[in-house]
Amino acid sequence: MPIRIPDQLPAQGVLLGENIFTMDSGRAASQDIRPLEVGILNLMPNKIATEVQLLRLLSNTPLQINVDLIRIDNQAPKNTPQSHMDAFYHDFSSVANKKYDGLIITGAPLAMLDYEKVKYWDSITAIFDWAQRHVQSTLYLCWAAHAAMYKFYGITRRLLDNKFSGVYPHRVKSPNNELLRGFDPVFYAPHSRYGHIDVADYEGVDGLHVVAESDEVGAYVVASEDKRMVFVTGHPEYDANTLDEEYRRDLAANQAPSVPVNYYLHDDPASEVMMRWRAHGSLLFTNWLNYYVYQTTPFDLSQLAAKQHKVRSQHE
């Protein structure tokens, strides 16, 4: 698809190698259409790997998309060169007056911290509020999904004794929801999390609907009726080897991790990985872009309205 990303971004070479069409600024400017404006607030430590994963999933529609990579602060990331951040990322303050058709907020390795103890909690909640006024539809992934549920609805995740790690079967609960258009009745998706919110807690919020779930790991996709908020508790963006890297990292740190379920052939870490979630992950992002962003966003983004239905903070 014609996705426009910054020139020289490392993801560009990876995507071109996968025969995914990217567009430079010159070609984008020659097309007489309004592209979708999509921001990615990347909270993951390895920014470059996450960029590739998300841009790949944004690449399967005929829509032209401008992507802004956004960072929450100027602190040097642990696993990404500072030069990369300076070259390709916008400080949030520099885009705070901009309006976006779509925004993706990634997960973060913060499972064991209380929300208020996260060093950038005040900043991330300010961005959550900002998105209600400046973004047509926001997609919250994993930790961000739980953090947004806490911020807006006062629902606190509980921490599991054993991490959900693996590739789990899910079923389509709302087959008429456009996010799941084209999905098989049962499909697989990766999870890697300690945090958990019960399905009943999501369904207890007026205007939210669980549209895909798993008997083993609970709610997977939760969407608001007005299409302005989507919560995804897993990692449809993960590469084939991401869970393997996490497992071996935790082994090296003597954390005694469980073998990711339904991931290795015969559940044997010495065997090959069974990659069976990319098609549905790609379709989820395509449906979000088409039905929750493109079909609902105003042509003139200055006309974007503040989110109408009432949300409540955790302090109410």
Automatic annotation (TrEMBL):
Lineage: Bacteria, Pseudomonadati, Pseudomonadota, Gammaproteobacteria, Alteromonadales
GO CC field: cytoplasm
Role this protein plays: Transfers a succinyl group from succinyl-CoA to L-homoserine, forming succinyl-L-homoserine.
Sites annotated Important for acyl-CoA specificity: A111
Reactions the enzyme catalyzes: L-homoserine + succinyl-CoA = O-succinyl-L-homoserine + CoA
Keywords: Acyltransferase, Amino-acid biosynthesis, Cytoplasm, Methionine biosynthesis, Transferase
Protein's gene: metA
Name of the protein in question: Homoserine O-succinyltransferase
Residues involved in substrate binding: K163, S192, R249
Cell membrane among keywords: no
Location of the active site: C142, H235, E237
Domain of life: Bacteria
Localization in the cell: Cytoplasm
Pfam families (alphabetical): HTS
GO BP: any one term: L-methionine biosynthetic process from homoserine via O-succinyl-L-homoserine and cystathionine
Protein family according to the UniProt entry: Belongs to the MetA family.
EC code: 2.3.1.46
Top EC class for this record: transferase
Important for substrate specificity (site feature) positions: S192
Pathway: Amino-acid biosynthesis; L-methionine biosynthesis via de novo pathway; O-succinyl-L-homoserine from L-homoserine: step 1/1
Source organism of this protein record: Alteromonas halophila
TM ranges: none
UniProt GO molecular function: homoserine O-acetyltransferase activity; homoserine O-succinyltransferase activity
